[in-house]
Write a structure and sequence with these properties.
This protein folds into 2 domains: 123 residues; 41 residues, no CATH class. It has 6 helices and 2 strands. The chain is an all-alpha fold. It starts with 8 loop residues before the first helix and ends with a strand.
Length: 183
C-alpha cells in the first residue's frame, strides 16, 4: 500500500459496494413502506430481506477496515469529522437494526424512526467521505511544496523568494519502500 490507511482495491470495492447496497436497499424500503411511494414494488418483503442481507455484508465490510483504516485515520488526522460520524451512525444503525429484529414491540415505532433517520444521515456522510478529496485542512507534504514552488520559480511567477530556482542537495527525493531515486 502506498498511503497510510489506503485499502486494497478488492477491499475498497467490498466496503463501498456493501455500504451502498445496504443504503440503497434501505432507502428503497423506506420510500415504499414509510412514504407509501410504489409500496407494492419498494415496500415489499423482498426489499427488506435484501436490506438485511446487505446489512450483514456492510457489517462485515466495517469489520474488515476497523483494524487499520480507523487507526490510520486517527494518525493522519484527515477526515476525522466524517470518519467518526460514520462510525457513530453505523453503531447506531447496528443497534437499532438489532432492536428492530429482537426488541420489544413497545419501542418499535421510535426505533424505526431512529433507524431510518440515522441511515439517511449515514448515507450522505458516507458519500462525502468516500469521494471528497483531501484539500484545504490537510497539510501539504514537503516534496509537493518543493515541486510547486520550483515550478513557480521556473515560470517566473515566484512571489515567495527572489532566487531563480529552489535547489537542494543532490536534487533527489528518496521514496520510502522503493530502491530508486526520483529526480
Amino acid at each position: 500500500m502506498s498511503r497510510l490507511g489506503r485499502m486494497p482495491s478488492w477491499q475498497r470495492f467490498f466496503v463501498i459496494g456493501g455500504m451502498l447496497a445496504c443504503s440503497i436497499s434501505g432507502t428503497l424500503y423506506l420510500i415504499g413502506h414509510e412514504f407509501q411511494i410504489q409500496r407494492s414494488t419498494f415496500g415489499n418483503r423482498y426489499i427488506l430481506a435484501a436490506h438485511g442481507i446487505f446489512a450483514i455484508l456492510a457489517t462485515l465490510a466495517l469489520g474488515s477496515v476497523l483494524s487499520f483504516h480507523l487507526k490510520a485515520g486517527i494518525q493522519s488526522k484527515k477526515k476525522w469529522l466524517s470518519g467518526f460520524s460514520q462510525f457513530s451512525f453505523l453503531a447506531t444503525l447496528i443497534a437499532t437494526g438489532a432492536l428492530l429484529y429482537y426488541g420489544p414491540a413497545q419501542i418499535r415505532d421510535g426505533v424505526v424512526t431512529t433507524h431510518w433517520v440515522s441511515g439517511l444521515i449515514f448515507f450522505a456522510i458516507f458519500l462525502l467521505h468516500a469521494v471528497r478529496k483531501n484539500t484545504g485542512l490537510n497539510p501539504v507534504s514537503p516534496s509537493k511544496t518543493y515541486f510547486f514552488l520550483n515550478h513557480l520559480c521556473k515560470l517566473g511567477q515566484n512571489k515567495f523568494t527572489t532566487r531563480p530556482a529552489i535547489t537542494r542537495p543532490a536534487a533527489k527525493i528518496f521514496h520510502k519502500g522503493s530502491d530508486s531515486f526520483k529526480k
